[in-house]
Amino acid sequence: MSDDGGAAIEDYYLEERLFPPPEGFVDDAVVADRSIIERAQHDFEGFWADQARALDWFDDWHTVLEWDLPFARWFVGGTLNVSHNCLDRHVAAGLGERVAIHWEGEPGDTRTITYAELLADVERFANVLKGLGVRRGDRVAIYMPMIPELPVAMLACTRIGAPHSVVFGGFSPDALRDRIDDAQAKVLVTADGGWRRGAVVALKENADTAVAEAASIEHVVVARRTGDAGGTTPMTDGRDHWWDELMSKAPESCPPEHMDAEDLLYLLYTSGTTAKPKGIMHSTGGYLTQVAFTHRAVFDLHPERDVYWCAADIGWVTGHSYIVYGPLANGATSVMYEGTPDFPDKDRWWDIIERYGVTILYCAPTAIRTFMKWGTEFPERHDMSSLRVLGSVGEPINPEAWVWYWTHIGGGHCPVVDTWWQTETGAIMISPLPGITTCKPGSATFPLPGIAAEVVDDSGKSIDRGGGYLTLTRPWPAMLRGLYGDPERYKETYWSRFDGRYFAGDGAKIDDDGYFWLLGRVDDVMNISGHRISTAEVESSLVNHPSVAEAAVVGAKDDTTGQAIIAFVTLKAGQNETAERGEELRGHVARHIGSIARPRTVIFTDELPKTRSGKIMRRLLRDVAEGRDLGDTTTLADPRVVDEIRRLSTAQPTED
After folding, report:
1. Is the pLDDT of residue 8 over 80?
2. Is residue 17 a part of any domain in this protein?
3. Longest C-alpha distance within the chain, in Å?
4. Average pLDDT, whole number, for the chain?
5. In which domain, by residue range, is 548 found?
6. Cα 594-597-600 angle, rounded to 5 deg
7. What are 54-76's pLDDT values in tens digits?
8. Mind listing the pLDDT tens digit for each residue in 513-562?
9. Within a domain: residue 547?
């Protein structure tokens, strides 16, 4: 296969070629997985009870599931503690010297933290929180960079039964304040700053601005990260405390609280259709059961020999479930990285994989497409033969990126597990199982054992083939337990569109073989002359062209067709941004999908507007395309990108 994909990619794209499980990959764990699939099909409650028994419980449950649509209670009567399951039980089993986290700072500093060391830090910080007046049920806000103190703070909260609310370190002071206010958090844990592309992110300064208008905060704990590089850190007497100073005085031992399975574990806020963020509630027993199971099964985890790297940020649900709770519950060794893929150079990720011997890599399609844009020279400079499983998360992966990932990162032998799930679901819901599932590039394949997913039409009728709305028909252990303080909004948002079905806005299609293909959110579906065209489908077609590194499309108002397709395209290095190339791409889409999907305009741009987690902000592109005010752009990785795209779009002629 050529570096840019070429004709081979075209074959995969058009034929939806099947990738059988790798030869020699099947082992005893995979055989066991086949038996759990059969178990889940005829007794899903019994199946989930089996998975829950992989955890340590202080008291057993008396009822697996109580379901009063749309409210679920799992493992009723059972008690456990998350930090005990993530730390104490592994140390007690003699695994205290196993590495829990290989931490890599952006400037190049590193730390290796064993399970025994992590437990000691968690116990001390749990006592720090107690000393600041935090009691069971109190909420703690956490606003930190990707440093080890972040999971320590989270696990310390779980140890004493204080629900945490982690706020992504790239969010603005206003976003932090709104989340603190909604949760009525008592303590804020932050850092003096964080590193991003060699510059200091002023976290404490942002925190001070937020706390000035957040009356519920009584104390602020500040970890030292950037030191003098970030300038003097202002500290308010009586309110602000240095992390290390409190830790040096804290008692060493803190017994874990016995938490009810349905006790609130954490809040995680996600945007909604109103200005008020939605506080997603996840419970203790059901959530930990499902994230531990899915982490084991989806990645075919062998904790005694795997080195696992989820390249997300803990500020998002992926980081909660698959950097902190899932891996630690399973006794895994993980890599945690503070920085970006391109600092100080484009070798950074591949160097990390080589040095730590990473065996499992889990990252976003956006990152993969960025690597495609850079070319294969960077990964080819490194030995990545340790890799054996590749994962994809965050949005549907286009077939071209899937094949490039499999070929150039996985060496053509690693299974690719393309996972679908949401902040609301808490854990992976649809995904291949390595060694079991025959994959198709770009398809998330089938629902996992214990999960019931169906695609329905506009009337809510289940369909066996074709496109529609992705729904879930029965409860699952890691499901959100509601929206904090707003049960009516929970019912209206997730359970009102289709009777008796959970629906959070994603579209999907089922092909002739029964495979699920995620199409993105239905609000990313364009209505062109009465035809519903998926943005994901058009973007996939554009990226299929050998000159294109990345693409995003939006629908803009059109007096004739209702909406017209506007394509924002980043070309690969060495490709020319010409009017002829734009015409070529418009024709390429028309040939792949049909003339109805031909973009009205192709706008070439060096970068697309992305959040710091790597997601393309299509809302901003829609606003640019229609000339609207952009509103808050503080979550962008580089706000200057939007100004450049606005300039390009106003200078770009409309093509008939």
Report:
1. no
2. no
3. 72
4. 88
5. 529-651
6. 130
7. 999 999 999 999 999 999 999 99
8. 999 999 877 767 676 765 657 787 788 789 889 999 989 898 888 766 66
9. yes
Q: Is 120 left (phi over 0), alpha (psi -120 to 50) or beta?
A: alpha
Taking only the tens place, the pLDDT of each residue in 471-498 is: 999 999 999 999 999 999 999 999 999 9
Q: How is the chain split among helix, strand and coil, in percent rounded to 5?
A: 35, 25, 40
pLDDT at 645: 65
Query: 68-97 pLDDT, tens per residue?
Result: 999 999 999 999 999 999 999 999 999 999
Inside any domain, residue 200: no
Closest C-alpha among 443, 333, 450 to residue 38: 450
What is the sign of the dihedral through the CA atoms of 373, 376, 378 and 379?
A: positive
Tally the residues of the chain: 656
Which of the 8 DSSP states describes residue 359?
-
Angstrom CA distances, 449 to 134, 224, 297, 480, 589, stand at: 39, 44, 10, 19, 37
CATH of the domain at 576: 3.30.300.30
Residues 6+ apart with CB under 8 A from 304: none
Q: What is the 3-state secondary structure (H, E, C) of 294-310?
A: HHHHHCCCCCCCCEEEE
Task: Give 48's contacts (C-beta < 8 A, 6+ positions apart).
Answer: 64, 65, 74, 289, 290, 450, 476, 477
Domain count within the chain: 1
Three-state SS at 187: strand
Token duo for residue 610:
């992305």
Relative to beta strand 259-260, strand 240-242 is unpaired
Note whether residue 629 is domain-resident.
Answer: yes
Distance of CA 116 to the CA centre of its chain: 28
Query: What's the pTM value of the predicted model, to 2 decimals?
Result: 0.83
Q: How far is CA 221 from the centre of its chain?
A: 27
- The sign of the CA dihedral 315, 317, 321, 325 is positive
Q: Taking the mean position of all CA atoms in its chain, how far away is CA 126?
A: 27
Backbone torsions φ then ψ of 382, nearest 5 degrees: -130, 150
Which phi and psi angles does 417 have, rounded to 5°?
A: -100, 105
| Residue 344 preceded by cis peptide, ω within 30 | yes
Calculate the alpha carbon distances from 583 to 6, 341, 534, 540, 622 in Å: 19, 33, 21, 17, 22
Give the DSSP H or E segment for 117: helix 115-131
Distance CA 173, CA 194 (A): 15
165-183: buried (b, 16+ CB within 10 Å) or exposed (e) per residue? Answer: bbbbbbbebebbbbbbbbb
Closest CA to 51 of 427, 389, 438: 427
